[in-house]
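Sample entry (296 residues):
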Amino acid sequence: MAPMTKHNSMPFTARLARWRGWIQAGFLLLWLDPLALRLHTVCSPVFHCYSCPLAFLACPIGVLANFSALHLVPFVALGTLLAIGAVLGSFVCGWACPFGYVQDLVARVPTRKFELPGWLGYGRYVVLAVLVLAIPYFFGEAHPLFFCRVCPAGALEAALPHTASTALTGPGIAWPSAAKMSAFGVVTAAMFFTWRPWCTVLCPLGAVYALCNHVSLFFLKFHPQRCNDCDLCRRLCHYHARSQRRGDDQRCIRCLDCTRCSAVTISHVFDSTRVDPAEAASEREDVVTIRPANHP
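Predicted structure, serialized as C-alpha cells:
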C-alpha cells in the first residue's frame, strides 16, 4: 500500500467518505418511513417519489410541478430547499438522496464506464425550467411531458410497486405509461455505463443544489499552495473535474473522495485561516502522490 503522507495518516473527511455508502443506506431507511408516519404534506430535501408505498415525505420536485400547474408558489417547499441548499449545497445529493444511492449501487457492476461531457449538466436546468415549471404552468398535469409522468424515480418507487401489487390482488392491472417506463429504461441502462447519469444530466433537484454550491455554508476548498500538480484529485473525482474548480463544479455531489488529496479540504464561510508562505512551501514538499482507488 502506498503511503498517503509522511505521517501515514488519512484526512478525517477521506475516512468519512469510506462510510458514505452506509450513511446513504441509513438515509434510505429514513425516507422509507419505518414508523409509517406518512408526512406527505411536508417537503423532503431529496428526490423521492411521494407515491411510493413507503414514502415518508413529499417529493420537492413533485411539489414544484403540481403547484406550477395550479399557478401557485410553494413558498414552504422553496424555503426548505433554499435553506438546506444554503447550508449543504449538493452534499444532499452525495450523501442523502435515495435515487442517487441506487445509481451508486448499480455503478458497482464492473462494466466499462464512459465520461460524459460536462456541458450535458446544463440539461438539468432545462428539465427544471421546462418539464417542472413551464409545461405544468401552461398545460397542466394532463400533458404527457408533465414531469411526474416521465419521472424515472416515480417508475421505480411507485409505478412498478403499485403494478406488482395490483397484479397480486386481482385483475385490471394499471400499467405505467410508456413514456415513464421508457425514461426509466434509458436511465437504468445508462447507470451501468456512466457515473450517476440522472444526477449528471437530468435531475432538476440537482440543478437547484448545484446553484447553491456557490453560496453554501459548507463547501470544498482547493488550496493551490498545497498542490504539486500530481492530478490526484482529478483522478479521484468521478467526473474528472479540474482541481481548481473542485469547490464549485456544477456536477460535484461532494462525495469527499477528492479530499484524499491534501490540496482539497472541506471548509465553511466563517473560516478565515490564512496560510503562512513557509508552511505552504513545507506542505508542498510533504505531499506524496497516492495511487487512487478504482472507482466504478
